[in-house]
Design brief:
Layout: H1 3-7, H2 11-34, E1 40-46, E2 51-57
Antiparallel strand pairs: 1-2
Length: 75
């Protein structure tokens, strides 16, 4: 969804694709996490040579104000 616009440097289409992901996947997942329908959410981001999986639980939603070291985001 975002790969082709990125490669073509079509930033308007890339932005629209990201907005669609937010609307169709991320916002509903956050709402389900907030109201307890989901215990946790895992999102895996893939690049050309590596990937990272981000894990969030309902309790993590209350930790948004805590400062974290950048390196800890990639553990």
């Amino acid at each position: 969804m975002l790969t082709t616009p990125f490669i073509e440097q079509d930033w308007a289409r890339w932005h629209d694709g990201l907005a669609a992901l937010e609307r169709d996947w991320f916002a509903p997942a956050l709402a389900a996490l907030q109201n307890g329908e989901l215990a946790s959410v895992d999102i895996t981001l893939c690049g050309d040579t590596s990937s990272v999986t981000l894990h969030a639980t309902r309790g993590d939603l209350r930790k948004f104000w805590r400062r974290r070291a950048l390196a800890s985001l990639f553990e």
